[in-house]
Amino acid sequence: MITSTANDQVKYVSALQKQAGLRREDGLFVAEGLRLFGEIPCDRMVRVYVSEGFARSGGMEAVPDGVPVEAVSDRVFAAMSDTKTPQGVLALVRTFGHSMDDVLGIGHKHGAAPFLLLIEDIRDPGNLGTMFRSAEAAGATGIVMGRETVDVYSPKVIRSSMGSVFRMPFMAAGGMVESIVRIRELGVRVYALALGGRPVFGRRGPEEPGSDGSGRSSKDMGFVGSGSGPEEPGSGGSGRSSKDMGFVGSGRSSEELDFTAPVAFLVGNEANGLSPEAVAAADEALEIPMCGRVESLNAAMAATVLMYETLRQRMAGIGRHRT
User: Fold this and answer.
1) What are the tens digits of pLDDT across the range 214-237?
2) Which domains does the chain possess?
């Protein structure tokens, strides 16, 4: 049993918890907690650490045969843990190497049309983990993340994904614009969540004076938004500012947007939204209309709205590309 925090293994686990560079270099990350432990594919487990109390309570039975396991004192485990209330078990896990075919769902047993979430520059680990959960729940085939997005193997991302990171194919893209171009070349229509885009639900009311026909004023022309809190005024996951309040609940609706076809949704930074280059590279911009005086939606919530509209259409068999 390891009883000292000066032990090299303890130091290494602690470093993996904190250093994204080390995780990338060694191809390992830490998954902690009993529920997450049960979600880890056995063939990706490298080593398991359990606390003295966990071992005494019979927790060792949860460790798969053939996986090296090391017991540590409760005090040492608390030092290794990234949580305030450690559950007594964590594992070193090999990182994933999904391909574009995996992300597109090619060869998927259900034969669903590609359904992707593209993430540019999301910085909050909780948002990214929630996006993974929502993507899995809504039936997305995969996720592509831009280089500035928070490390997917961050302990907080792993925990907030509630195991979805182990099941949802994903890729880290070099440049988001290049990834969008490649995905479009593969026959996937890319929608950017951005100010002034086509409403996902409903239609616009009368345009404001000075608008360019898109239903937004010249003041709003340079803004692209997709956010989560704390949001800047006018930013947000809805992709609109407080000036864009002219929506009514009838007329052109999301049924005319065929999300049963191969589709990808592009969501950007919590405060600043998508880069203009990423929006320009997409096929079309969308925005989520909102009632009241709400300025924005959380980025993960906005992505979830779009993904669940896709699930709704596909379950209902709406559109030309039924699955």
Assistant:
1) 333 333 323 233 333 334 333 344
2) 8-94 (3.30.1330.30), 100-316 (3.40.1280.10)
State the chain's maximal CA–CA distance in angstroms: 74
**Is the separation of the CB atoms in 279 and 121 below 8 Å?**
no
Alpha carbon distance 71, 103 (integer Å): 37
* pLDDT tens-digit series, residues 111-149: 689 999 999 999 999 999 999 999 999 999 999 999 999
Task: State the Cα–Cα distance between residues 66 and 277, nearest whole angstrom.
Answer: 49
**What tokens does 57 get?**
């309570």
In this structure, are residues 133 and 161 in contact, taking their beta carbons and an 8 Å threshold?
A: yes
DSSP code of residue 165: G
Answer yes or no: are the C-beta atoms of 194 and 225 closer than 8 Å: yes
199: β partners: 287
Phi and psi, residue 39, nearest 5°: -95, -15
**142-182 pLDDT, tens per residue?**
999 999 999 999 999 999 999 999 999 999 988 999 999 99
Residue 104: both structure tokens together: 């597109």
Neighbour-count burial of 65, counting CB atoms closer than 10 A to its CB (0-12 exposed, 13-18 middle, 19+ buried): exposed
From 318, 307, 322, select the one nearest 139 (Cα to Cα).
307
- In angstroms, the CA 255 to CA 314 distance is 11
* CA 226/CA 272 separation, integer angstroms: 7
Rounded distance between C-alpha atoms, residue 149 and residue 29, angstroms: 17
* pTM for the structure as a whole: 0.82
